[in-house]
Design brief:
Spore Coat Polysaccharide Biosynthesis Protein SpsA, Chain A; alpha/beta; globular; 21% strand
Length: 227
Amino acid sequence: MKLSVVIPVYNEINTLEKILEKVKNVELDKEVILVDDGSTDGSRELISQLKKKDPQLKVIFQKVNCGKGAALRAGFKEAVGDYVIVQDADLEYDPKDYILLFKQLADSNADIVYGSRFMGSYKDMTTLHYWGNKILTFLTNLLFGVVLTDMETCYKLIPIEVIRKVNIKSNRFDFEPEITAKILKMGKKIKEVPISYAGRTSLEGKKITWRDGFSALATLIKFRFFA
């Protein structure tokens, strides 16, 4: 099975090369798709250099900053793997955990596998993000009758045919609740596997804020009852 790794990038010049190296070192048949979402810190120029060094690297440049969801839509259109996964361009998630997700896929009857930070090891997650994630996951379980521990996780291993059927409308971080809501409404089974996580602060470049939490809540309700 081939994996399409979609990496949305917005002003991640300090971590981009390192995360790309980590992704490439994972021993799986894969393609890597970098989507620069209008970076202004030199990431675009760095990506151009990386493309010259590795012609197999797929690169997309968004004309302006449109948000994570918009970047992922662009990346998914170019994906040709059997499964897709999103890899943030920071170092919070460890690409070695892809192997754990594929193992769970093989060992269970799941359609989709999520990597759960709360089942595994997590550190340096702020109190705001901890409780925001917990509340949004609780509401997902309540609204959709499932038992998840980490709806907001970046690591979602999803078949390409499912991605092709889901019309993602969210432009920002509300991509996570939207994709989960639509997957569950399709009747797909989600399994979770423990993964590792090392958070970063806003000073270190973390972009999600409390406002995105309220947007995620509205997105869950919208796609549960009205879309």
